[in-house]
């Protein structure tokens, strides 16, 4: 094993994730209605929209825009750009989340299940966005939940 050199930085959190999308307007609407994300900047000349997602950002790039066209064919069934994006949420009420998604015409990919993440094991629920990108909503781990007042 090679000796490790000290890093000149430490990772704090995910800053942003970028999804290439077929219909920018439809995706902006989806992320706003379903997840409560808000548009914070539009860069029309690039076909890029920045959405606030808590302390992070979700950037949407139109596949026919200046940036998106560099990525080749549009995402499609069986050909996604990313495996999934995980958003840490509170509270995690599985029945309430499923009802919320159904109210927006979105079907979860399965029941809530325990998965490992940055804080340890916790319940999560997966569902697709309009382009087939998978979103994971993840609740707190029991250890983290117990630390809060």
From TrEMBL:
InterPro entries: Glyas_Bleomycin-R_OHBP_Dase, Glyas_Fos-R_dOase_dom, GlyoxalaseI/FosfomycinResist, VOC_core
UniProt domain VOC: residue ranges: 13-140
Pfam families assigned to the protein according to its UniProt record, in alphabetical order: Glyoxalase
Listed name of the protein: VOC domain-containing protein
Source organism: Pseudoxanthomonas broegbernensis
